[in-house]
Amino acid sequence: MKHATQLNGAAVRWRCDADQLGFKTTDEVQPVKGVVGQDEAVDALRFAIECRAFGQNVYVRGLSGTGRMSMVSDILKDSKPQVNGKKEHCYVMNFEQPDRPRLLTLAAGQAQSFGQAMDELAAYIADDLRESLDSKTMAEEKAETETAIQQAINAVTEPFEKELKKQSLTLMNVQTNQGNQTIIVPVVEEQALDPQSWQQKVHAGEISEEQQKQLMDRQQQYSRELEEISRQVNEIKKNGIKDIRAIMERYISQLLDVQIQNIKSQFATEAVHEFLDALKQDVIDQYFYKKNKNYQPRERYVVNVLLSRRDDKKCPIVTERVPTLQNLLGTIESKWGENGPVMADHMSITGGSLLQADGGFLVLDARDLMTEPGAWKILKRTLKNSLLEIVPAEMSWPFGQPSLKPEPIPVNIRVILLGDAGLYYLLDNRDADFPELFKVLSDFDSVIDRNAQGFKHYSAIIAKIIEEDDLLPFTAEAVAGLIEHGARVCAQKDKLTARFSRIADIAREAHYVACKGKQLLVEGEDVTTAIRRTKQRAGLPARKFREQLANGTINVATSGNRVGQINGLAVIHAGPIVYGFPSRITASIGAGRAGVIDIEGKAGKSGSIHTKGFEILGGLLRHMLPLKHPLTFSASIAFEQSYGGIDGDSASGAEFCCLISELTKIPIYQGISMTGAIDQHGLLQAIGGVNEKIEGFYDVCTLNGLNGQQGVIIPASNAGDLMLRPDVQQACIDGQFSVFAVDNISQAMEILMGQPAGLLVDGEYAENSIMGQAMQKARQFWQHVNDKH
Fold this sequence. Notes:
Layout: H1 39-50, E1 58-61, H2 68-79, E2 87-92, E3 102-107, H3 111-133, H4 136-166, E4 169-176, E5 179-188, E6 191-192, H5 195-203, H6 209-266, H7 270-288, H8 297-300, E7 304-307, E8 317-320, H9 325-329, E9 330-332, E10 335-337, E11 340-342, E12 349-351, H10 353-356, E13 361-365, H11 366-371, H12 375-385, E14 387-388, E15 409-410, E16 414-419, H13 421-430, H14 434-437, E17 440-443, E18 447-449, H15 452-469, H16 476-490, E19 495-497, H17 500-516, H18 524-537, H19 540-550, E20 561-562, E21 565-574, E22 577-591, E23 595-598, H20 599-602, H21 608-624, E24 633-639, H22 652-664, E25 668-669, E26 672-674, E27 677-678, E28 684-685, H23 690-704, E29 711-715, H24 726-733, E30 738-742, H25 745-753, H26 770-788
Parallel strand pairs: 1-16, 1-17, 8-13, 13-16, 21-26, 23-24, 26-29, 29-30
Antiparallel strand pairs: 2-3, 2-7, 4-5, 5-6, 9-12, 10-11, 14-15, 18-19, 20-25, 21-22, 22-24, 27-28
């Protein structure tokens, strides 16, 4: 079978000439440095790295497996971004609000030194300060003050006591219900009598009523004076205690000032000085006012260094591969006491990757970020406010215990987000903050040019893979095989895939095959074997399909002619591996007004794209059958023995040909299968998986027996994408199999039905053409329907 659209054997597979690569083995190739074939993406990323304006975070867009992470790492290393004024962050105790730890920000290299200095100060307060209070100097000054206090008391009480003595009275301390009190009692025979002894003498008659009356008058007279003197004594004592405390506070303050001043001289930061002043006051409060029994200076004054930096200009670069909320923010570790959870302190706070990236870059995978609850929201808030708020994973502790609320940390972070196009458009359309925060798009293409420069890039990348994974050297033929596989994976004219992870996997397996053969080099045959092994491992669905063909479970004819039946082509995916297989399509037509019915659609098995393609089929039918009356036939189209969902529009061309065959009763040769989407004017449009679809039908034809008349019709726009297996190419060269690249549906019908399709002239086709017969049948249906009415 010959047709103008038939491709020759050389056109169905592009070959890479190993002699054109310029080397014999990869030992002669310099491994790649940096990124290849992505100049625009690299330029955008460099701009985001070097521009420090707000919102210039970057979204690196491209398919996974294209080396985005390597690209970002390499560019960041090559750019060597600098940062001035690195900062270190630490938390200390907030004495006024213990639930709000205080933030101290220091210059790079100072936090650890500050922490060590505070450890030494805390040890001094815990061990040496108490001993200093018991020193001889302190005791002498305290004793002098106590003596002065006693003298002041005596100056007030002695004249009063002398006056009482003249009146045969004296002062006595007695215990009452109100506590210890000083009262005035009589002196009889040089003996002071307490109230009980006095009453006993009165009852015994030793004291007359006159003496008792005189005593009570004198007591009442001097009691008012005693109250005033007691008030003066209490005031003297109160002031005395203050004086003693002031002495001790001044002494402690002087001792602490020596220690604190030394720290202040090392760290000239206002926040540090304010903290040290607050610490000194807290020490005094703890010693003299609060008298906290659990006072532990070593725990209370220790410094929690969250972030320490080297004092250089090297920019921090952090890659967070598990962007959970806790890993991004940090956390506050819970503390437990004997009776359950207790309030955490400033030492319970830990920082996350957002803090580690302060002043530098944070690299994140967008999909991983979006799958973590709350992570995207927190990232946006941090970038918008330039403040990092470390909060616990749960907003409150167990049993309602309040959590810490650390002071927010000022941060300056540039985020590099790696994601695909779908997620980018979703965020751009649904999240108002995204365009403002991620103003730079680094579009990482999935293909590179298939030319001498592209071959050079591939060779350098393969050399890098060999170097990194310690593989055997590859011959030029082996590298050419990998380049051809890159063209096959890409399936685009004059392009190679940039998903180098796929190429690396084949290279590693080819190395394995060569090692098994005890070779010193990886040859071209090893690459071919590796590709075949990879496909065989995921080939169970294809093998099951062939078994069902062989035992007759699935009916697919590859020879003979059938009316209203055609072999369409579909694909199935097994991970990155794609398999093609034929699918029998049938059509049935009768008089009526129902139009063309999609049985898959009626059964709910049709995807949206397949439904769209089917609707286009109706439009094409009206375009190619320009009748003066309505179409008055009812038709149904079905994918036979298809029990799953059907989607995609690549079968719409085959469906149209099948429908015309049933309408005209012109048989279709079953040895020719077809794939291609149609538009409403009959042009065939490109489809995906063209190589796999052709190979799938070839395998079925081989199983049933090749007869030299079999082949596949594809859109002409897919001709440049062909990278068929070598055995399929050889069959095309030998004339055992054919590939037809057609532009329009008329060419396809001529190949399938063996008759001219016909050319529309003044609304009519040639009488014996396919479309001429279709017009006649359509008129007959119209007449038949009208005759009934």
